[in-house]
Design a protein that fits this description.
Strand order of the largest sheet: 1-2-3-4-8-7-6-5
Distance between the termini: 69 Å
Number of strands: 8
Structural class: alpha+beta
Length: 181
């Protein structure tokens, strides 16, 4: 017989299959819950766009976020909120449309313009979207639109509007582009 002195006893070998099964089950369960939590967090980030604006963001939180990024609010007779920031190259303004009943953001547009060189405004706008959603997009040749699927039924669109401004639009996903992804 061997006697161990001075502390910790060695583990007792077990042939109890239900004990081993329960331990493995707990580990798998924790791993699965961790993965689901991470996916939930990632999907929440996917709905956040340029300048930290998010779908469903409250008006008070929107004002706080935009102010922290150097934006000033412009007062207009308008159904949403308008922000400007002269420190961002080629940015004209950001318009955020608020739901009338919940007073939360449901879509927004950022406008970029450079009279002398429209390509510089385009590159500035693309750089912002790339930083958030990556460089993988669909180019719609028919409508001349850059398209990003940002998840949860939402999309980001970059196009030249009728006023010759490059527009980044965040809104509901257009099912037309489903076949491209």
């Amino acid at each position: 017989m061997i006697t161990i002195t001075g502390g910790i006893e060695p583990p007792v070998p077990t042939n109890n299959l239900s004990y081993n099964y329960n331990q493995r089950y707990k580990k798998v369960k924790i791993a699965a819950l961790t993965i689901m939590f991470l996916m939930l967090c990632i999907s929440g980030f996917a709905q956040t766009g340029i300048f930290g604006i998010s779908f469903g963001q409250s008006a008070a939180d929107l004002d706080k976020v935009m102010k922290s990024k150097g934006f000033t609010s412009v007062v207009r007779e308008y159904e949403g909120k308008v922000y400007t920031n002269p420190k961002i190259n080629y940015l004209v303004e950001v318009q955020v449309f608020m739901d009338k009943t919940t007073n939360k953001a449901y879509t927004w547009n950022a406008y970029f313009y450079n009279e002398a060189d429209s390509d510089k405004a385009l590159e500035a706008a693309k750089a912002l979207v790339y930083a958030i959603h990556g460089e993988e997009y669909v180019w719609d040749y028919w409508d001349d639109v850059y398209v990003w699927d940002i998840g949860s039924g939402k999309g980001a669109y970059l196009y030249l509007n009728d006023d010759n401004e490059w527009t980044i639009e965040y809104s509901d996903w257009d099912d037309y582009y489903e076949d491209f992804y």
